[in-house]
Amino acid sequence: MVRQVSDGGASADRNRRAQQGLTRLMVRDMRGLRRLITPSRLQATVPAWIEAVRALVDVYGSASVSLAADYYEAERVAAQVTGRFTVPLLNPPPEEQVDNGLRWATKDVWERNPDDPATTAAQLEPLEVRLEQAEKKAEAVAQKLVADQGRGVVREAVRQDRQAVAWARAAALGACAFCKLLATRGAVYKQDTADFRSHDGCHCGVVPVFRGQRFELSDHAREWERLYREFAAPHSGDQLRRFRRALADHGHMPVL
Ligand SMILES: [Zn+2]
Fold it and tell me: Ligand 1 center to residue 181 CA distance, Å?
């Protein structure tokens, strides 16, 4: 029986990487869809592209859900808790949510009037640059839509499973300061109402904790916690920025 779980444990890490690999494949597929956009016919071709991306999000979203369900079941077996449990499979996000995200991502590709004071610098870039930016934003939007489904499954399972007591956030070594800070909170008990906050491009995982198990922060999360306490916590109002700097100063931020 696995008595101790950690945000940095082998299976948590494997799960996080599997989900990350899945969204990487999706991004590769998305790049293949780019040829659907004809720059001279944006009005006609961008909506077709949005539809194609939505179909990809559907396919990869259900793959993310199955991966997460398999992971949860394996963790439950390893914890040797009693009783049967069926992992609830969540519904995919509503079509409008996907469409709205992709419309937001492509909002700067449309031709604007340069004399209109509402026109931004990004909207006046050459079309290729605007398309490039839109593609990047759309990839990040789609990645979150897919990864949130897998994360949602684990959290919902924890909520429904009488043998599960808590969940924890597993952040990668290359995660942003925001995610690292949330990861230092460790096990969030299911009666707490804390939400799992993710952002575009976030690859954090959710680790379930079962009855009889003890949660322990990984060494790296403990070090992030120490940096936060020492360099950021006393500076109310400026904590995230201070934390980001402390992480960078101590070699805990990826070089961008
Ligand atoms: Zn994250």
Answer: 10
